[in-house]
Amino acid sequence: MQQFRRLTPLALALGLMLGSPTLLAAEAVEVPAVEAVNGKAPLPLEELRTFAEVMDRIKAAYVEPVDDKTLLENAIKGMLGNLDPHSAYLEPEAFAELQESTSGEFGGLGIEVGTEDGFIKVVSPIDDTPASKAGIQPGDLIVKIDGQPTKGLSLMEAVDKMRGKAGSKINLTLVREGGKPFDVELTRAVIKVKSVRSQLLEDGYGLIRISQFQVNTGEEVGKALAKLRKDNGKKLRGLVLDLRNNPGGVLQAAVEVADHFLKKGLIVYTEGRIANSELRFNADPADASEGVPLVVLINGGSASASEIVAGALQDHKRGVLMGTDSFGKGSVQTVLPLNNDRALKLTTALYFTPNGRSIQAQGIVPDIEVARAKLTREDGGELIKEADLAGHLGNGNGGADKPSGSKQQQAPRPQDDDYQLSQALNLLKGLNVTRGE
User: Fold this and answer.
1) N or C: more exposed end of the chain, with fewer CB within 10 A?
2) 174 versus 32: which is more confidently predicted?
3) Exposure of 26 in the CB half-sphere (CA atoms within 13 A)
4) Residue 329 among the catalytic residues
5) In a domain, 7, yes or no
6) Structural domain boundaries enclosing 136
7) Domain-terminating residue out of 192, 215, 240
8) Looking at the structure, do residues 286 and 360 belong to the same domain, yes or no?
9) Are residue 177 and residue 212 in the same domain, yes or no?
10) Which of 127, 140, 315, 418 is catalytic?
11) 66 and 140 co-located in one domain
């Protein structure tokens, strides 16, 4: 089972989506024997003797008794933890949570976290969850959990502290962009994630927002495109695909989403050491988007599967990427079930965009950089116009006069308070103006 994610699965309790139940039920991937890979003896006897000696010394001399099971499981965790940030040993509870999380409903804060310089760092809050409603942002450092410092905690330990029953409260102390620490109180909840939302921004211009890539996300995007066409009454003139703060998810869903906008060519490919890690995905000729002009929004919270979609559309010059550099998670994790209700989540491959770019630790660079900004609007009253003057001439070509105050008040729109979205919409309008549409 192939998955594109960035964090340890223990972050599931905070609201992560990793793959699908059907994929997770797959048999373990066959891994070549060690000697077949590197030609060396399968077991390094000297190191094993050292391991046995260390274990014996700990059992004999440690200040408190430690049983063999605990020592061996800690050794396994150490093996996985020192490979890369995304490989992990899943004990039964974490493995069960991993299997349940792909339905789009799970308990937690709705936040994805990683580590940076010994601190716990917010990678992305998930839409409509306690974390996003509290204003937590990508890049925030969690320096305390319920008053206890997080410096030096492993990601596993921090996640364990943030777990809890729905309805229970937790206090996080955050630092944003080097500023002063501030506290945020959150109430844990059952997280129900709707991965796709869509709406018309204006006549002819639509928005599709993907918050995570779940099993059915590709199908939902297809339905969203059809609904936007129906609501508009005719073919769209432009579309914004919003992948900001989308931490990733299921590989197949990312492929399906990209395929909705492409008629041919490679979408993504992966390279690794085991046979199952060599994958290539190509677009089919159908184009659910009907070639509509496209702007894709990304930022530092766009990772993994989001970067697959953005990279494919950028390489095929299917849309204009706008925003800021993405996260840069370009590795593939495979879940390898073990025979004791446990599993390994192991990094087995790297993925590449159609042009052969590896996103790992670099990310996707947008075509047009637009940083997040706060929109403020002047409210100084409308100036007097010609049509307000007594005895003014009418328009010779016909049509009603337009005095000040004649413009109807519009209902609030998403682009009114979202600078990046408003710039994406303006770009689409400009493209249509230059094309004479």
Assistant:
1) C
2) 174
3) 15
4) yes
5) no
6) 107-192
7) 192
8) yes
9) no
10) 315
11) no
Could you report the per-residue pLDDT of 233-257, keeping only the tens digit for each?
999 999 999 999 998 988 999 999 9
Residue in this structure with the two tokens 């637009």, named with its chain if needed:
370
φ/ψ of residue 161, rounded to 5: -70, -30
Distance from C-alpha of 9 to C-alpha of 98, rounded to nearest angstrom: 7
**Count of domains observed in the chain:** 3
Among the candidates 369, 390, 411, a domain finishes at 369
Residues in contact with 278: Cβ distance below 8 Å, sequence separation at least 6, in sequence order = 270, 271, 272, 349
Query: Residues 253, 276: one domain?
Result: yes
Residues 6 or more apart whose CB falls under 8 angstroms from that of 360 comprise 328, 329, 330, 331, 350
Q: Is pLDDT of 396 > 70?
A: yes
Say which of 124, 198, 302, 304 is annotated catalytic.
304
pLDDT, averaged across the chain: 85
- Residues 327 and 239 reside in one and the same domain: yes
Known catalytic membership, residue 315? yes
Q: Which tens digits make up the pLDDT trace of 50-96?
A: 999 999 999 999 999 999 999 999 999 999 988 988 898 988 888 87
pLDDT tens digits for 307-351? 999 999 999 999 999 999 999 999 988 889 998 899 999 999 999
